[in-house]
Structures are given as structure tokens and as C-alpha cells.
Amino acid sequence: MIDALTITEYSSIMSIHRVSNPPNPFISESREWLEAIPETRVEIYEEHARSILSENDSPDIPFRWSVNPYRGCQHGCAYCYARPTHEYLGFGAGTDFETRIIAKVNAAELLERALSKRGWLGDSVTFSGVTDCYQPAEATYGLTRGCLEVCLRHKNPVGIVTRGRLVQRDAEMLGELNRVASAKVFMSIPFARDEDARAIEPFAPPPSRRFETMRALRDAGVEVGVMVAPIIPGLNDMQIADVVRMAAESGAESAACIPLRLPKSVAPVFFERLAAAMPNRTQRVASLVSAMRGGRMAESRFGHRMRGEGPHWASAMSLFEMACSRHGLRTHSDRGKDTSGRKSVRETAAQLTPLRVPSKKPADSSQMLFDFGKD
Ligand code: SF4
């Protein structure tokens, strides 16, 4: 919960669209606009959190410890399955999720405390387990950077998943961290073409910039990979091979892919935006998602959430595997093969981060690698 709250506001490109949220299941009242629906406006809430390290024990999530310096995400991807987490805070899962951002301003201090504990074993810490740690607010707050400075001081391995170009700002530090411990950055890139991404991920940097960022990180000595996620059948599945090829050309060494799932209030947000951007595709995408998810829009059972089913998913996966094999990228099925060049037992435990088998429960070897949010 939020301990202390102050609000600052700043203008943003996000004021271009209007407030729209699906009903919050935790709030009994609803709001109807009698006049014109107001434009969205970014508000940052500063939180003094009680803790910063989250421990995951889901077998679907390949890391144990994660840090999320922000709640909500200004990138505003239509499909983001972290959206319902905002409803627990009394906000909406639609435009509220991408405009009402909570910054845990004491993140670095909390992480320093956690990593200094005698019982801390130096496990890898994953950034962006829920929302993007390099969203625009990071340019002002520098919370992720502060946490990375802590990790560097402690020589603690990190894994990062992001769509944010801002990670390039920290390339030098991440390169140094990779030299003394391990630093791996997965750029999340579901579309090969900028114009397609813009319709669905309106405020995230375009894919072309993300590939450039990947190259810059690699040049700085950081290990990089690509998350081709989510796979949206009927929308981006034919771009899988292009994304993998472009990632390989930009220095990626490994790749993962995850099918779309639309839990709870994510589905109405996604389809509202898809219908606005590509009205002709909506019906087909809906029926393919349903086929890929066993007649539902989402799958919450452990072991099933991160993989699809049916012929469409099977062909997307074989396209992905073939492209990775052709361009020499490791995939989840290669986990455990690359054990070269690590520095100590401590690092060895985190060696495959973010392709790491969770320490508490055995992973299904056929599962996908990343959860980028929680149901
Ligand atoms: S999918 Fe990732 S980048 Fe996009 S809105 Fe969600 S947390 Fe942000």
C-alpha cells in the first residue's frame, strides 16, 4: 500500500487522448461524464515503499527476485497485462494505468538495505517484472539507475526487460556490472515495423529505436536478448522472423516469445484500442486469441499461462524456433547449454538470468520465459 503520497504533475504527450477506464471491480461507484470527456494528464504519485524486492514463486516466472520502481506504465501498451494491478490501488486499468504513475522514491535505499543483509545470497535481481523500469518518469526520478548503482556496489547480477530507450543512458554502468557480475537486458519487441507498433504501443519508443538501443548496449559490453512478446495472432505473428533477424543484427544473443493473454480488464482495453486503430482486424484477432487460449481470452493456470495451444500457436512457435536457429540465437529450450565465462558460484546461480529456472519450483521445460505482469 502507499505509505506517503505527494503529487507532482508534468505535461506529456499523453494528454492527446481522453480518459477511459473499464469499471473497477473493487469500486462500487462509477463515473459518467455529462460533458466532454476530459483529456488524460500524467500525475506522478511519490510513494515511500516498505520494501522493494518481490519474491516470485510461480513456476511460470523464471526469476525469484524482482524490483519494480514504478507502478503503472506510461508506455501504455494496449495489451499490457499489468493493467489490473492498478485497480488494487483504486485506479482504472485503462488510461489511469498509463497516466497515474507511482514512483517508489526510496527504491535504492530499500535495495541497499536488502542486499546488505547477511542472509542475501547474491541471487540475480530482475527489473521490470511488472511494469517498465525505463518508462519516461525514470528520466526525472532515476530510481532504476539508483538501484543499479546499488547492484554495482554489491556486484549483484541483474536482468532487465524493457521497451524503454532510456536504458541506453545506463549502458556504461550495465557494461561494468556485466564485467564484475552479470547484466542482461532483454528488449521487448513484438513488432518489426514502427507504424504497426505505434497503433498498439502508442507511447513506447518505436521498434527501430529499440533495435538501436540493443546495439548500443551490446557495444557497451552488456548481454542483450529480444523478447518477441506478446505474440498477437493475426496481428504480429507474421513479423516474428523479421524481429528475430533484426535483433540478431543488433547484437542479440538470445530470444524468447510469449503468446498474448488478456486477463480481466485487459481484454476490454485491448479490444477498444484495437478497434479504434484497426477496425478490420478486431474480429479475426479475437477469434484467433480465443483459439490460442482454449476458448478463453486468458489462461491463469500455472504451466499454461506462458504458452498457447492449437495450430496457430504451433506455427508461430516453429517460425520463432526456425528464425532463432537460423540467426544463432539461444532460446528457452537452450537453457543450461551456455555456461561459459561466468565468474563465481554466486554468478553461476544467476547465469541464465533472465533465462533462469526458478529456485523454488521446477520449471516446465516447454514453458515460455517471462511474465511481464501479474493477473
Ligand atoms: S507491456 Fe510493458 S512497456 Fe507496455 S505498458 Fe505494460 S509494462 Fe509498460
Structural class: alpha/beta
N-to-C CA distance: 18 Å
Cofactors, ions and other ligands in the entry: iron/sulfur cluster
Strand content: 5-15%
Write the layout of secondary structure elements.
Layout (H helix, E strand, L loop, with lengths): L5 E4 L33 E5 L5 E3 L9 E3 L2 E2 L11 H5 L7 H5 E5 L2 H9 L9 E3 L9 H5 L1 H12 L3 E5 L8 H10 L2 E6 L5 H7 L6 H13 L3 E9 L8 H10 L4 E6 L6 H12 L4 H11 L17 H18 L17 H5 L26
Parallel strand pairs: 2-6, 4-7, 7-8, 8-9, 9-10, 10-11
Antiparallel strand pairs: 1-2, 3-4, 5-6
Helix pairs in contact: 3-5, 5-6, 9-12
The structure holds iron/sulfur cluster.
What report would you give on this structure?
The chain is an alpha/beta fold and 375 residues long. It has one domain (6-349): TIM Barrel. Helix content is 33%, strand content 14%. It is built from 13 helices and eleven strands. The strands form two sheets. It has a seven-stranded mixed sheet. The chain has a four-stranded mixed sheet with strand order 1-2-6-5. β8, α6 and β9 (183-188) form a beta-alpha-beta unit. α3 runs parallel beside α5 (143-154) and α5 packs parallel to α6. It is globular, with a radius of gyration of 20 Å. 50% of the residues are buried. Iron/sulfur cluster binds at residues 73, 75-77, 80, 82, 131-132, 163, 204, 372.
